[in-house]
Amino acid sequence: MQSTDFSKGKVWQNIVAQAIPLILAQLVQLLYNVVDRIYIGHLPGADSMALTGIGLVFPLTTLIAAFTFLFGTGGTPLFSIARGAGQEERAGKILGNTFSLLLGTSFVLFLLCYVLRRPVLYLFGASDASYLYADAYLRIYLVGTSFTMLATGLNGFINAQGFPRIGMLTTLLGAVLNLVLDPVFIFGFHMGVGGAALATVLSQAVSCIWVLRFLTGKRALLPVRRKNLRIDGRLAGEIVALGMSGFIMQGTNCLVQVVCNATLKIYGGDLYVGVMTVINSAREILSLPVSGITNGAQPVLGYNYGAKEYDKVRQGIRFTTILGIIYTSLAWLIVILSPHLLLSVFTEDAAMIEAGVSALRLYFFGFFFMSFQFSGQSAFTALGYSRHAVFFSLLRKAVIVAPLTIFLPGLGLGVDGVFLAEPISNAIGGLACFVTMYFALYRKLKSEK
């Protein structure tokens, strides 16, 4: 596989070249989630309750994603390292163990979530009305747990063997199929929320078959072999240890979602749980470019750091930070000027749009602070300071957002307190992350030169 020398040429050009395909890939992945919400938000006669039901399911889908990250992002780099060292037998065992861990965990998660879905959904803030929609979606979605975890968790092994186009097609295939099947099942067969879940399950099943067909076929350099499926405790420990940072980050997302939904149910009712679902969707869309830019910068920063081209590392950090601030400031301006337009993409419900306008503006207040968080964490990750990246992710979500979501509404702010928790955490957490990165890395790079 051809390697790219990121120390040649202009740093910003290398970052943009890496960022564009990443943004496109993330955009395709985003279609899986956002398209469902758009169609569901326009269900005739469902008002805001259908979106509220989907919002209640988010924590459980995030939990499934957390375990997928635990094994997928833990196994893939170990696999690459083993291949690079010429240890093909070890690499094959890593692939086989990751497959078994994903498959076994998917069965356990399916059983637990399916059996406990009613009490769990009520714990997450469901009412009798919203539970009907949440349960209609969840009981079908959970059937595809194994498809989801295997397709996502094993796809990185295709890229790691030097087939990035096939890996990209895995995501593209599922997303396009989901886009086509959603209106067929939701409106054509009048299945409503359940139709959206069925479209997702079938799309993930096709993606899963695509991945497994490649990894068990002749084109794979190191295919999945039966002899490697037996779990090795020591190897499984290495996979889990390396994937723990991704697991923790997804786990804190799950925690924040649960706290937000439960608190909004108390202070605002089902309507505001639906509003939060729409706001989260808008945030995912608006955050995608800056996320792609900073993720695209990581291999460029890491390569130049390894080559001791410290000036180029500093240039890269400056470029991503400045570009991130400019973009997030423009995104904030769009929210201020066009909140009705953003909300109408996901719902036609007048009450939800009316309640969502002020909530959207509060939630995105000072959105440019997010660029500091992205830039700081990206630099920490690229230069091998993974513990710092995990710490500041935990600081913003578990230490700042979750407690503020609980306490601010009780101070008389009501639902506004829930939406204010996000900009406060962005400012405190984002600046803390960036300032620490500046003194611990950026200035240090200058002195080392």
Structure description:
This protein starts with 10 loop residues before the first helix and ends with a helix. The protein has helices spanning 11-41, 49-84, 88-115, 117-123, 128-141, 145-160, 164-188, 193-215, 233-267, 270-306, 310-337, 339-346, 350-363, 369-382, 386-413, 415-448. The protein is mostly helical and 449 residues long. It is built from 16 helices and no strands.
Brief summary:
The protein is mainly α and 449 residues long.
Q: Give the low-confidence spans.
A: none
Q: How are helices and strands ordered from N to C?
A: HHHHHHHHHHHHHHHH
What is the overall pLDDT average? 90
Q: Rg, please? A: 22 Å
Distance between the termini: 32 Å
Morphology call: globular
Count of discrete alpha- or pi-helical segments spanning 4 or more residues: 16
* Share in β-strands: under 5%
Largest sheet: none
Helix percent band: over 70%
Number of domains: 2
**DSSP strand count:** 0
Structural class: mainly alpha
Key attributes of the depicted protein:
449 residues; mainly alpha; 84% helix
Break the fold down into its secondary structure elements and pairings.
Layout: H1 11-41, H2 49-84, H3 88-115, H4 117-123, H5 128-141, H6 145-160, H7 164-188, H8 193-215, H9 233-267, H10 270-306, H11 310-337, H12 339-346, H13 350-363, H14 369-382, H15 386-413, H16 415-448
Helix pairs in contact: 1-7, 1-8, 1-10, 2-3, 2-5, 2-6, 2-9, 2-10, 3-6, 4-5, 5-8, 6-7, 6-8, 7-8, 9-10, 9-15, 10-11, 10-13, 10-14, 11-14, 11-16, 12-13, 13-16, 14-15, 14-16, 15-16
